[in-house]
Amino acid sequence: MTFNRHETPRAAWGSFIPVMSFAGNSLAVAEVELRKVLRDPVELFSRAVQPVLWLVIFGQVFSRVRGILTGDQSYLDYMSPGILAQSVLFSAIFYGIAVIWERDLGIIHKLLVSPASRGALVFGKAVAAGFRGIVQAAIIYLIAAALHISIRWEPPAMLGVLCAIMAGSAIFSSFSLIIACLVKTRERFMGIGQVLTMPLFFASNAIYPLSVMPTWLRLLARVNPLTYVVDGLRGAMVEGGHSVLGLGPDLAFQAAAVVVLTALAARLYPSLVR
Fold first, then answer.
1. What three-state secondary structure class fits 6?
2. Which of 70, 157, 206, 208 could form a disulfide with 152 if both were Cys (CB 3.0 to 4.6 A apart)?
3. pTM score, whole prediction
4. Where are the domains of the chain?
């Protein structure tokens, strides 16, 4: 019996082919989505208006209120990671309406007969949502710098913020896609999206710590993905920021949520054309 010394490396290389194919197809979908943004960036920047108002108006007023205990941090420093997470939520949660438009235009039919797997189609859209979140973050960073918020500019901290933004955007864009697959119409989607955004925001630690919440609301916050996005950003984004769980566990929770929601969205994605 003889063994080919090239057999094992070839077998190992072959096992990476599906992964590389998935990554390539996902990036192709993300590139298409990003081209849409570059052609019409007005919608992207209009999404940044509300977080800016929260920082400039709400933050300035509540920084004078002493009822919210933020330790040694100013309230503006404390809430800025929460407003960044809010921006990620609001820009990603309505991502599904674009998928309904694609269904009406017949684009989804063409995507489903392409060689790309349904998981790659969904994950590619999640990656594109992450890049949208990065643009939102850049705008908020500029406003935060203008308001003299103590931003951390160290490369490891910036990398942690980047990872949290990408993961958070992927979570809520995949969740949005699931809703779009279930309701199938723009009118229903807009109504449900409006109903979900504010409860997700207020049932988190974005603008106040978990310790001030009643017990029932604290339990809801513990299963709210936005809580973990904010917690990771709070430890990485601002000087003196304290992450309760730590950036690693926060990102691990978000990664698990991305896998589950992407898999569910991939199973539901073909139902849009029925």
1. coil
2. 157
3. 0.85
4. 20-273
